[in-house]
Amino acid sequence: MKQSVKACVFCASPLAGRRSKEHVFPQWLQDFLLLRGQPLHSASYTVQGQLEPANTRSLVLNAHVNGQVCAQCNHGWLCDLEGRAKPFLAPLFDGTFHGSLPPEDCEVIAEWLFKTALTLQSAEHRGECAVPPQHFAAFYSGRSIPQDVTIAVAPFSAGDPTPSWTINGHWRGIGEGPAPQALVDHYQQSYKITIHAGRLAWRVTYP
Hints:
Blueprint (H helix, E strand, L loop, with lengths): L18 E5 L3 H6 L6 E4 L14 E4 L4 E6 H5 L1 H17 L9 H22 L8 H10 L7 E6 L8 E5 L11 H10 L1 E7 L2 E7 L1
Antiparallel strand pairs: 1-4, 2-3, 5-8, 6-7, 7-8
């Protein structure tokens, strides 16, 4: 069941008079990578690989925002997460990080990467592979990544630092497993979100 566009995707409170514009890629990162006015092109494809013209759009990076986040979330706990993660993120995005981090710092980074994936998916409205509403709610209420969500991080060596992404929910499997209806239910809840920006790439998968 899809959440109403009139409610915050995180806390589910009414957006009337409280709507905010959460940048999918924060403005500090846009400026850090010198990409604030960079053009972006977004498109959606069917399972058969056919372009869906109604879900195609072009915009600049600074205009890529999610209007389904309330001001309290945007300027409250999301802002706090941004502040805690930023010192670790800058050297990751420009490729200058070398070494290791303690688990608690890695957890902050993972939470920021997950938040960005949620914000991106919600802004893009990708129907069948939508992140389950309970994942937004769990992240808001527990301030932690839901169980069975995996986040993989890797350096990105391509020359173009402009953000790019793919969002889908297509999984293939073979062998003994759940009953057919259970597979359908499982498929409808699963998702894969892969994002790249600067010199960093990450993938969020469930389950």
